[in-house]
Amino acid sequence: MGAHKIRMQMKRERENAQRRFRRQKQRNVLASPGIHDLIVVLDNLKPSYNIGKIFRSAQAFGAKEVHLVGIDFFDPAPGMGAFKAVPAIFHDDFDACHTMISAKGYTPVILEPAKGGSLMDSALPQKSAFVFGHEEFGISFDPTAYKGMKRLAIPQYGAVQSLNVSIAASIVMYEYAKQHGDHQINSGSYPGQARTKEVL
Fold first, then answer.
1. Measured on CA atoms in the order 43, 46, 47, 49, is the torsion positive or negative?
2. Above 90 in pLDDT, residue 199?
3. Architecture of the CATH domain 36-182
């Protein structure tokens, strides 16, 4: 396939993705918040498959909302319709997002592998807003500029201390649901034993 045909195919794929986005965004106004006081914040992520997959996990784990910072378009196809089901709130920058979630009483939490405490050994706030940054550049803001910002890390044991952002988001939402969720829903009682946790 020649370079021109490849460019044309990529253009058609992007146009199809934009149509899917517009269609599902119109239906998003009817979305209902999930059962948990859990917010997901996506800070300037690429408009690729990760955002759709995070919406899918947000729906699975009962997230209340997904906030999108600096994102005006993404392909919702990988979310398997979850973009229509989980309320989405769009912001131009993180400052506007922080103002809104703080007014709602949420604690913003960022993941910092080298600096944060262990996700699994920390008591997560009931009202947690987990912030996930760009796949290459990370978060777009200086966390020290925001009062009450918490830092956590997902324990990793391999040579590479890095996870795909959609995988990381799923792990974080699972741990939140494990701590705060009603485990009678869908899957029965959670079999894990309670552990003493370090309060954030």
1. negative
2. no
3. 3-Layer(aba) Sandwich (3.40)
